[in-house]
Amino acid sequence: MVDAGPLIDADRLNSRLYALVRRAIERGEELHTTHGVVAQVVREPARQVNLLRLLAGFDIHAVDDGVSVGRRLAQSGTRDVVDAHLVITAERLGTFVLTSDVDDMVVLDARFERY
Question: Taking CA 1 as the corner, what is the angle to CA 94 and CA 89, rounded to the nearest 5 degrees?
Fold first, then answer.
């Protein structure tokens, strides 16, 4: 699961994440993020062509009924629906979150890797 921070960086062709994602796509690996994260990073599609190309290789997950996300927010005492949804989705997929937002991931009790 990829959070917003790394994807913002991925819009630059010479970014570390852009290279990692391109290699993962070429190897046929599954990449995931959420619609909420996409909404956080895509602002000017005509100027973010590289980012949109990368996102085309991702499975992008929608919020289900929202109950699990709401529960996680209540348990953690936080309010960021996008982060909570990302964590819940990563758990369902049995993976971790690649993030630059370590503090929020710690509070949400997420498995994560710092970007």
Answer: 55
The CA-atom distances, in angstroms, between 104 and each of 1, 4, 50, 53, 98 are: 15, 12, 27, 28, 12
pLDDT at residue 25 in the model: 82
Q: Is the pLDDT score of 13 beyond 80?
A: no
CATH number for the domain spanning 58: value is 3.40.50.1010
For 83-93, what is each residue's pLDDT tens digit?
999 999 999 99
Domain total of the chain: 1
Full domain range(s) for residue 93: 4-114
28 CB neighbour count, 10 Å cutoff = 7
